Amino acid sequence: MPIVFVHGVAVRRQGDPGWEQVNHATGHLHWEGIEARLRQYAAPILQPQAPEQVQIHEIYWGDLGAYYRLGGRALSSWPDPVSSDLFPADLDPEEVGEVLERQFQQIRSVRQWPQVIESVWSVARDQNLHETVASLAPERQWEFLRSAVQSRLPRPELRELIESPPLPAPIVAEQRRSLRRTLLTVRRPIEDFVPLFLGDVMSYLSGRGTPEAPGEIMRRVIDGLLTARQQGQADEPLIVLTHSMGGQLMYDALTSFLPADPRAAGLRVDFWCACGSQVGVFREMGQFIERQPLPTTALLDSPHAGYFWNVWSYSDFLSFRTEEIIVGAHDTAFPFLGNVRSDHMAYLHDTRFYRALAAKIQVHSGRT
Which pLDDT value is given to residue 227? Predict the structure, then answer.
């Protein structure tokens, strides 16, 4: 039978909403690359004489996941006077206050922010100053208000100046810009990935449905497995590889949804590898439909489940063990290099993983 791959969260095809946000965060991982590696390493185990004839399918459900417009980034709705043509006379006092507060926070130490906030808003809400600003030429308005704020800031005591002389404002501003640029290189991929990770998980759980009436994502999983069985040869095992949240979908399918679907009678996933998954922690937290006491024998008892290999990594903080939680599970900790940002996707890039997968298929699917 074919090899079936079920992807995890934050996976989108080009053209789907969110693709631009996650493409870089997932290491430019595409189905074509996964398929090529499965063809090279796993297919020859199933059909040594004709690996090109092995059917390899992806069950894609990313278009049914979450969508968000801003990409998780905190975009300011307040005008930037440096890069816009808006001037204080064009804004209401609340908008003026927000602009001034952000400007002074960039050049003042955090310990001075309480005084900055008080001074800024006393200026922004001063009606007399607002009337004066309206009479000034536009190019002078912001500077006038900044000077007014500066005049209302308390002067530092002499002892404070001696013990901790303040840095010039331009140096403070440049230091913060440099720090912001540095941290954004780390934060940007996380901003792209984490909201979709959480959103896709919630999309599945909130719309999962019941075994008698599966939700849209689970229907796609079931239909994909049924199609794989129909297209394969009778003497071939059905191999399933899942990544991340795809493991949770497969666990629900094997333990709850397939047993309730008359069309799935006789369907058996002979070998299932879940890499980088949260199957163990989801089961421990009671997030599956199946709710036996732990350790659960539901997977072992399922007529649709064969050998279950769970691959996780110490450096992949989104992967978890399953042994002692799910009876019949077999864990392997894969030794990645420890790049926390990328190791959650590393399984699907690493040829060593596919070679190990092929060896496990050979010894646990009757193809020895």
Answer: 95
